[in-house]
Amino acid sequence: MKRAVVAVCRLLLGLIFVVAAVGKLAKPKQFMNDMGEYRMLPEYILPWAAAMMPMVEMVTGLVLLVGVPFALFRGKRPVAGIWFTSAAWMAAGMLVMFIIALSWVILQDASMSLARTCRSSTRARWTGGWWAGTS
User: Fold this and answer.
1) Nearest to 92, CA basis, from 4, 16, 39
2) CA dihedral in degrees (93, 97, 100, 106; nearest 10)?
3) DSSP character for 131?
4) Is residue 110 part of a domain?
């Protein structure tokens, strides 16, 4: 039962990474612009990161997919077993980085929304908004 769960997880995660990589490789400029919107990387690193990330995702996803039969029928560990373990760790690392990036965007958007709200409420107070005259 445990081997089946591991195999299904490898299959799903491998497919997710391959599909994500194909989408990014199909439109590299758009992906680079999307990465730039996160504002986490300096401009000079952005093209390199945008070029490497889909390739790393593709290799990781393919190695995870190749490892599915070995997860089901595990006798002696093949020499390629280190690749399967490494791909699993790479996938975990990329998912953690993705969660950090999403958290960064959510926090930035929340602070930007708060700043916009403060600016608009101050502007409304000074330009005769609905609460103008209240202190």
Assistant:
1) 16
2) -140
3) T
4) yes
Q: Which residues contact 55 (CB under 8 A, 6 or more apart)?
A: 21, 25
Distance (Å, whole) CA 11 – CA 32: 28
Give me the number of domains the chain comprises. 1
Other CB atoms within a 10 A radius of the CB of residue 71 amount to 20
pTM for the full model?
Answer: 0.71
C-alpha to C-alpha distances, 55 to 31, 88, 128, nearest whole angstrom: 13, 16, 55
| 134 assigned to some structural domain | no
Enclosing domain of residue 95: 2-73+80-123
Q: In the predicted model, is pLDDT for residue 74 greater than 70?
A: no
Contact between 13 and 64 under an 8 Å Cβ cutoff? The reply is: yes
Window from 38-42, 72-76, 101-105, 117-121 with minimum mean pLDDT: 117-121
Residue 132, domain member (yes or no): no
How do residues 3-15 score in pLDDT, each as one tens digit?
A: 888 888 889 999 9
By mean pLDDT, which of 23-27, 39-43, 117-121 is the weakest? 117-121
